[in-house]
Each structure stands twice: as C-alpha cells, then as structure tokens.
Amino acid sequence: MKRREVVRRITIGGITLVVIPSVLTSCVKEDTNPDPSPGTGTGTGNSTKIDLSLPSNQNLASKDGFIIVNNIIVINTGSDKFVALSSVCTHEGCAISYNPSAGNLPCPCHGSIFALTGGVLNGPALSSLKVYKVTKSGNILTIE
Ligand code: FES
C-alpha cells in the first residue's frame, strides 16, 4: 500500500470517528427532553378539551400534577384551579417542564426558566410563554 493510500484511509477513519459522536449527541439531546407527562386532549382550532376522568390525564387529579397536550402544559395549582401555557420554549423550541418545588417552568436545553404567568424568570429566552384561558365544567377542562 502506498503512503497516499494509507493517509486517505486514515482520513476516512478519522471522519467516521468525528461523525459518530455528533450523531450520538443528537440522540442524547432528544432522549433527555422527552414529553414528561403526555396527556390526552381533543379539539380543533383554538380550543382543546381535556377529560379529567381519563387515566392518561390522572396527573391533573392532584396539586402540582401536570400533563402536556398539543404543545400545551396544563398544571393543577390546587383548589380546583389550573393554568395552561405553551410548552414550547421561546428560545429555541425545546419542551419545557414544571418544577413544583420552585413553582416555575424550566427548560432543559439552555436553562431558561418561566413563571406560571408565562414571564421569563431566567434567560436566554427573551419572550414570555403564551398563556391560555382554562375553564372547568364537571370533568372537562377547556383550554382556549
Ligand atoms: S430552548 Fe429553552 S432555553 Fe434554549
């Protein structure tokens, strides 16, 4: 084998080693940001209905329980009150979560933190989360 051939093969091997870690990094990022509490909702347009009697929505049965439906995070704040906000971080679009002990909404990607009112508590996000109106009738939450 000539020297040029050996160098070419090493270079190809080097590229392979560089590509594999970047692919693994992408997989890890997706795995560390799963939908933490998927719920079930129905609706079209600007209205989503959540049936609290469904097993998939049971996280909402107690204070600080939450689900994510249609890119909306719905949180039971206690005393039969609920809040609903966009679950899409305004920085780069990662799915936010809910931290009950701090009472805020952290984004796992770059550290932004949002208040339950949607406002930015900590960047890099600059814009607030969209807040939805929530009404309850029997076992049905309507989010608009
Ligand atoms: S995507 Fe949420 S902080 Fe960057």
How would you describe what is shown here?
With 144 residues, the protein is of the alpha+beta class. The protein has two domains: 1-32; 48-143, 3-layer Sandwich (Rieske Iron-sulfur Protein). The protein has one helix at 3-31, and strands at residues 48-51, 66-69, 72-78, 81-86, 104-106, 113-115, 120-122, 131-132, 134-137, 140-143. The strands form three sheets. The chain has a four-stranded antiparallel beta sheet, with no helix packed on it. The chain has a three-stranded antiparallel beta sheet with strand order 1-10-9, with no helix packed on it. The protein has a three-stranded antiparallel beta sheet with strand order 5-6-7, with no helix packed on it. A hairpin with a 4-residue loop joins β6 (113-115) and β7. The longest helix is centred in the first third of the chain and has 29 residues, at 3-31. It is globular and about 40 Å long. The termini are far apart. The structure holds FE2/S2 (inorganic) cluster.
Radius of gyration, in Å, reads 21 Å
**Strand segment tally:** 10
Structural class estimated from helices and strands? alpha+beta
The helix content, as a percent range, equals: 10-25%
Largest sheet composition: 4 strands, antiparallel
Secondary structure tally, helices: 1
Ions and ligands: FE2/S2 (inorganic) cluster
